[in-house]
Design brief:
The complex is a heterotrimer of chains A (183), B (442) and C (315). Chain B has 13 helices and 19 strands. By secondary structure, chain B is an alpha/beta fold. In chain B, the strands form 4 sheets. In chain B, strands 1, 2, 3, 4, 5, 6, 17, 18 and 19 form a 9-stranded mixed β-sheet that branches. Chain C has 315 residues and is α/β, with parallel strands linked by helices. In chain C, helix 2 (58-69) crosses helix 12 and helix 4 packs across helix 5 (114-121). The chains are: A alpha/beta (183), B alpha/beta (442), C alpha/beta (315).
């Protein structure tokens, strides 16, 4: 199994631009940042949420509380498959009850991760609303999930893979599309 | 007349065999002439007799039928584990033609009628000579003497409460004195129960590591010491069963040097395996006395080599599979031994250079027979034709489903042994022939 | 994969990497305890059987809580001694359980080796919740987790285990785990309760309590199992306390920062004085909380859970 990159679909500037636009949309839809909190889905949703938070601060001048969500214990595919272990955790430095939660993930695909993330949030409290923000929506939903804020819509085939790279984990910031080949 | 395995003739020659007896393995091929169940003649070379059926056993060794002074045939009372018939079949398959059965049956063999019953059962099976040992005390309760003379008249050859020690030292002293008058030995299961406590394996590194209650060597050593002093004081013939510790070997050695009338036996598992075998909690390695440390294993082998220990006895102790499926601490003590004794002896004593085959065979034939006064264990003109043909080089793997015994609780399952019994003759009759496929014995 | 095995039978079988991996996951589960909802749904639809063939309250409750917090379906099977005395072997029991298609078996048994036996005959995962005096791996892990939280890297750390080593599965699991992590383990108790040969596992044996605790970073004080001592391994509770009990004087002799652990339930004023048991140097309740987390981690990991599959999110 080997990942072969086919094309860069967003470079660093594209990503910053998309996130800045999403920040504007969020502030607009919410009439400001009051009651707003940001939750990034581990792992790459977390730095993206941080970028989004910074962008919102630039727009509105006020800080939005950020947290992270680990959905490991909420997955619906408990199985022996899985690569090298990584430890992540849920950081919820605020009470989500009655907040408007912006849930941030890198790629929206089947919708199963979002389903799990919603359950995690519910186990922490009862937010007033949860909105979904994703950097890339690649289609092929298996659950009735719809994003509220999208960085870029990318039509894909199911054989393709989208990789979002962030400085923190990948020393690089870009979005690539590719395929897994059998060699 | 041709030789026929199907119908063993009344008179025949076993030719081209190396005779192994009187402590020596003959260098040249020889023969045995069997007539009407007895040895008519034997010697080296080829006899000048013609017209007899000839069993050509080229390449094999001929030894006296083996003698086991310590077997449990479980009948009566525990027929689900073994009966005299199956025990005898196991004996024959192991090359044994004489066995001494232990009296710890249910009920115990503690009177003449019971002894007579066992002898009768042995004759019905007809596969080996069964010599019962009677219980020292009625019910093996350790509080009085059984009727030794009555049992001797019925066929008993020794007395023991084996399975349990005789805790009461006064009773043991009287047993030795009384047995001396009657000319029979007392067999001692030497163990101090108060030291053993709830022990289930040898007390040492492995018991500590596995969290299993230990059985201290001191339990055996102190009990052997007591019985030896009683033998010294009474002059009775004491035979120590299943010696397992270095300490006991040394105590016996000293007593023998002092002229105490003591003999002793060791089991194949005690001169071959150590307590690390218990590491997987398999009850196939649970026996009493337990597997000890490697220095004990060496001491047992040395003791057999230098004559401190007189003979090998198997302590054949069958238990059903169900019982062996209990957990280690709950499983019964004991393993089978008749069918693996020769292989274990050759593998662990002869191949390792502790003793030669002649000496090993002596420890399994002449020596045990003589110390117990049994009419067997020799290849001699006029004696019953009890003999075995064996292949001392043959390698084989012990398999649980190949045993003649009703039980298969052997410590050696899966192990490769060298040396196998090919066929066994009791009074000239065939009692066992190895039918192992793809090996053609004569 | 953190655990390569089907079962957790003892710390003897686990590597240092596996132990540390389990502790990592256990720490993540501990974080779940602070939420309003203290369970996660990951084991939904999985059946775990708690088979306790020996009385136990704490361990069973801890396992039960761990299973509930993972949303597993639970069956408690507390066998009466009598049904076994009637002749049912452990194998019969095991086959019965297997026929019910369970996913995991937690087993407590009075016989050393019982968990291993069941693991060999059953297809499902088995966690040993204590087999006779042999091993108690979850207790060992929770003890190590508690030490690790305070001391970090265990290499060179000095742990003194005090009490009835002979009959203690807790001691054996601690010894295996701690020595693998590079800690220096000292065993202390009356010679009647410290079996020979354990020095070969890399432990120091010391019968003088003062010497045994002098440089210790942790004291792990074992419960004196009064009921096990038919042949009286010590004269009286009073004398045991005087010779080996952890009194305020013993605590004062410890080096600064050293702390005291106890697997519970405590015999107050036998192996530990009340003042110490209620004092500031003990971490006993932390052990209890860590116990649930460690058990959650093991159940999760043996069920195929693996944090490696986590958070890559995209695909």
């Amino acid at each position: 199994m080997n990942f072969v990159e086919k094309a860069v679909i967003m470079n660093a500037t594209d990503m910053n631009r998309a996130i800045k636009r999403m920040a504007h949309e969020i502030v607009e839809a919410n009439h400001g940042v009051e009651n707003l909190v940001l939750l990034g889905v581990q792992r790459r949703g977390v730095p993206l949420a941080r970028m989004l938070g910074e962008a919102i601060q630039q727009v509105e001048g006020s800080e939005v509380p950020e947290g992270s969500l680990d959905i490991t214990f909420y997955r619906d595919d408990l199985s022996k498959l899985g690569p090298v272990p990584q430890v992540a955790s849920t950081e919820m430095p605020f009470d989500v009850t009655d907040k408007i939660v912006i849930l941030m993930d890198d790629v929206l695909y089947t919708g199963r991760t979002v389903r799990a993330a919603l359950d995690v949030i519910m186990d922490w409290g009862r937010p007033q609303a949860i909105r979904l923000a994703v950097l890339v929506d690649r289609g092929h939903r298996e659950l009735p999930v719809r994003p509220d804020f999208v960085g870029k819509n990318v039509p894909t085939s199911q054989r393709e893979i989208i990789k979002v790279k962030v400085q923190e984990f990948d020393d690089k910031q870009e979005v690539v599309i590719g395929e897994v080949t059998e060699k | 007349m041709e030789w026929s395995w199907q119908r063993i003739p009344a008179e025949y020659l076993v030719a081209n065999v190396k005779l192994c007896h009187q402590g020596k393995l003959g260098k040249r091929s020889g023969f045995i002439h069997v007539r009407k169940g007895r040895i008519e003649a034997l010697g080296v070379g080829t006899p000048a007799i013609e017209g007899l059926p000839v069993l050509d056993a080229a390449g094999l060794v001929c030894a006296p039928g083996f003698v086991d002074l310590h077997v449990h045939f479980r009948e009566p009372g525990q027929e689900e584990k073994e009966v005299v018939a199956t025990g005898s079949a196991a004996a024959a398959a192991g090359g044994f033609t004489s066995v001494v059965t232990m009296p710890n049956t249910l009920p115990a063999i503690d009177n003449g009628a019971m002894v007579r019953y066992l002898v009768q059962r042995g004759k019905e099976a007809g596969l080996c000579r069964v010599f019962p040992a009677g219980a020292i005390s009625p019910g093996r309760k350790g509080d009085a003497l059984s009727e030794f003379a009555d049992m001797i008249e019925a066929g008993a050859v020794a007395f023991t409460d084996d399975g349990s020690p005789v805790v009461n030292g006064g009773l043991m002293a009287n047993a030795l004195k009384y047995a001396k008058m009657l000319g029979v030995p007392i067999l001692s299961h030497a163990e101090d129960l108060s030291i053993i406590g709830k022990g289930v394996m040898h007390g040492g590194y492995w018991s500590s590591r596995l969290g299993l209650a230990g059985m201290s060597r001191v339990s055996e050593d102190s009990a052997v010491f007591r019985d030896l002093e009683l033998a010294r004081a009474t002059g009775g013939h004491l035979h120590i069963c299943h010696v397992s510790t270095r300490g006991a070997v040394e105590i016996i050695r000293r007593a023998k040097n002092d002229g105490v009338r003591v003999t002793a036996e060791a089991t194949p598992h005690h001169f071959s395996l150590d307590h690390s075998r218990c590491r997987d909690f398999s009850p196939l390695f649970k026996m009493n006395p337990p597997l000890r440390e490697s220095e004990d294993v060496e001491a047992i082998a040395e003791g057999l080599a230098d004559g401190t220990l007189d003979c090998i006895a198997t302590d054949h102790a069958p238990h059903t599979g169900t019982e062996k499926e209990y957990q280690f601490d709950q499983a019964p003590f004991g393993v089978t031994g008749l069918e693996t004794a020769l292989g274990v002896g050759i593998t662990y004593l002869v191949k390792s250079g502790v003793m030669d085959l002649g000496r090993l065979v002596e420890c399994m034939t002449e020596k045990p027979a003589r110390l117990m006064g049994l009419p067997s264990g020799l290849l001699e003109e006029g004696e019953p034709a009890d003999f075995v043909l064996l292949d001392p080089e043959r390698e084989w793997i012990v398999e649980a489903d190949k045993f003649q015994s009703m039980s298969s609780n052997s410590s050696f399952i899966g192990e490769k042994l060298t040396g196998k019994v090919v066929s066994t003759f009791l009074g000239g009759r065939l009692t066992w022939r190895d039918s192992t496929e793809n090996v053609k014995y004569p | 994969m953190i655990l390569q095995c089907k079962d957790v039978l003892g710390l003897e079988d686990m590597s240092a990497e596996e132990i540390l991996g389990v502790l990592d996951i256990a720490n993540r589960f501990r974080a779940v305890f602070d939420r309003p909802v203290r369970s996660v749904p990951i084991m939904r639809g999985r059946t775990v059987v708690n088979f306790f063939h020996e009385p136990s309250t704490r361990t069973r409750i801890s396992f039960e809580l761990a299973e509930k917090r993972l949303s597993a379906d639970i069956i408690n099977f507390v066998s009466s001694e009598s049904s076994f005395k009637k002749g049912e072997t452990l194998r019969d029991t095991a086959e019965n359980l297997a026929a019910m298609k369970i996913d995991m078996l937690i087993v407590r048994h009075s016989s050393a080796g019982a968990a291993r036996y069941l693991a060999d005959v059953l297809e499902c995962s088995v966690i040993n919740a204590g087999d006779g005096p042999h091993e108690h791996p979850t207790q060992g892990l929770l003890d190590i987790m508690t030490m690790h939280q305070r001391l970090g890297d265990m290499r060179g750390k000095k742990v003194t285990i005090i009490g009835d080593i002979t009959h203690s599965r807790v001691a054996r699991s601690n010894i295996w785990g701690l020595t693998k992590l590079g800690a220096e383990v000292t065993l202390c108790g009356p010679p009647t309760m410290v079996p020979g040969g354990l020095d070969k596992l890399g432990c120091r044996i010391e019968f003088d309590l003062a010497k045994a605790v002098r440089d210790a970073d942790v004291l792990n004080v074992l419960r004196i199992q009064l009921e096990r001592h038919s042949s009286r391994a010590f004269p009286s509770n009073r004398e045991y306390h005087r010779m080996f009990g952890i009194s305020p004087d013993v605590v004062r002799s410890l080096k600064p920062g050293a702390f005291i652990m106890h697997p519970g339930p405590m015999n107050r004023d036998v192996e530990i004085s009340s003042e110490v048991a209620d004092g500031p140097n003990q971490v006993i309740l932390d052990q209890v909380a860590n116990g649930v987390a460690v058990r959650m981690a093991l159940i999760y990991l043996l069920s195929g859970g693996d944090p490696g599959a986590l958070g890559s999110g995209s695909n």
